[in-house]
Amino acid sequence: MFISTLNFFTIFTLSSIILFSSFANAEFYKYVDKNGNVRYVDDLGLVPKKDRGDIVTYEEKYDRLSPEERAAMIENEREFEKARKEFKKNKDAEKARREYLKKMTTPVRILQNQVFVPVTLGYKNNKIRT
To answer: What is the reported pTM?
Structure first.
């Protein structure tokens, strides 16, 4: 009976370790060393004991998600970024088109039945705009 319980406990423990190891948190630690330099490490053991009082802990963005949820969130971010770039590209193209049309438009004045079109006349370095 004791051996059976021990085997069950061993199998349960190993299974738990394997199952929950994918949910391990990846934390980063920020501290200031004795020279005043800001340091970032991913292992608390790398922080000198005298500098451990001012440690700030950072977690990765998707630490608390399962692998499937993390993959879905990353895919959503990629799609969003792709759509944002496409929108910016279209917006830039529309702006360029408006500027081109503005350049191609000639401002005219209409007085009664006369149309005045501005003209620039030039000869050598002399230019006259009418």
So the answer is: 0.38
